[in-house]
Amino acid sequence: MSIKVQIQKKLGSFLLDISFQSESRRIGILGASGCGKSMTLKSIAGIETPDHGSIVVEGRTLFDRDLKINLKPQKRNVGYLFQNYALFPTMTVERNIAAGLRGSRREKETRVYEMVKKFQLEGLEKRLPGQLSGGQQQRVALARIMAYEPDVILLDEPFSALDMYLKDRLQQELMEMLADYKGTVIMVSHNRDELYRFSEELLVVDEGHIAAAGETKELFRNPVSREAARLTGCKNFSRIRRIDEHTAEAADWGVTLHTTRKIPEDTQWFGYRAHDFVPVWGSGGENMLRFDLESSALLPFERNYYLSPNICWFVQREKIEELDERGMPDYLLIREDKILFLK
Fold first, then answer.
1. Contact criterion met (CB below 8 Å) for 277 and 334
2. What does residue 141 show for φ and ψ, rounded to 5 degrees?
3. Cα separation of 87 and 212, whole Å?
4. pLDDT in tens, 56-86
């Protein structure tokens, strides 16, 4: 499968300017609310019309402003799973699944039966959406999409309205249901954990443009830009003054850091994830911050410590025992291999 999207759309003072090409089967789009994620999906689906650009799926042009091509949504063979699933409330499960199908009555009935079986909806065929649980509604919505075998499935924040337990269970269910789907799935979310779990390739969108893109796990390891690091969960940032290839002053942390890796010349920030500090008791040394506690928060599975100057240290449950035994550390070690070099 391949998809190529190059679009611009202006809405008031907001400009969506998105360009990406991918052959991955599972693509994630990560960004804060209002950054243009859903508008990108709606443009691919044909619900929104870009001002400029083109959208090509599997060599088939869905939209091209210059060539005056703009296929209607029903001609695009794109499945769109809305946040609220958008099931027809007065239609039964089987009629909802059949809604997008073409062919003879017998062909439709056969396809609906296949989907009911595949998505474990046996016994629910005659029920209305209002009589189903959230998980059952999601399965019906997916069955309706998969029934007509789209080239692309678009998932728009599919878990945003769910509580944590249900969200975790439905994420797993969704991944299992899509396991044998050969087409491209694009999921947008503001939740980095969902996309880390789901996607092979990740696009990080900030204020209408792509701030970073690449293989998902590699992008979390090396997010490249400050905005991408922030959206992938990094809490600690400092502007830097580069002294040489292996030395830089972290101005906001009041410490000079030495690295065995070369610090790229275009590095403007150091980033450091809150879980990566190592506590040190006793005298300080290289690449250490003095432990100057300002406040703390006790959470169910970790403790969060907020230090001066503007440092977050998050300690997970398995390490809390050591703190309870030894007391607060004197320093925090910044592991050289965990420093993020950011533009």
1. yes
2. -60, -40
3. 35
4. 998 999 999 999 999 999 899 999 988 778 8
Query: What's the token pair of residue 294?
Result: 């300002």
Task: Give the E-state strand segments of 31-160 in sequence order.
Answer: 52-57, 60-64, 69-70, 78-81, 152-156
Residue 290, beta-bridge partner list: 331
Q: Contact, 49 vs 43, CB < 8 A?
A: yes
Q: Residues 310-343: pLDDT tens digits?
A: 899 999 988 898 998 999 999 999 999 999 999 9
% helix, strand, coil for the chain, step of 5: 30, 35, 40
**What gap in Å lies between CA 133 and CA 6, rounded to an integer?**
38
Q: What is the pTM (predicted TM-score) of this model?
A: 0.85
The DSSP bridge pattern shows strands 293-298 and 311-316 to be unpaired
Structure tokens at 102: 């073409």
Dihedral sign for Cα 262, 243, 329, 233, please: negative
Backbone angles phi, psi at 94, to 5 degrees: -65, -35
Q: How far is CA 232 from CA 211, 222, 224, 228, 264, in A?
A: 12, 10, 11, 6, 21
Residues 219 and 24: their CA atoms lie apart, in Å, by 15
Residue 67 has what DSSP assignment? T
Tens-digit pLDDT profile for residues 5-39 = 999 999 999 999 999 999 999 999 999 989 999 99
Classify 310 in phi/psi space as left (phi over 0), alpha (psi -120 to 50) or beta. Answer: left
**Cβ 255 vs Cβ 304: under 8 Å:** no
Strand (E) or helix (H) holding 27: strand 26-30
Q: Which residue has the tokens 């701030």?
A: 211
Quick count: other Cβ atoms within 10 Å of Cβ 266?
Answer: 9
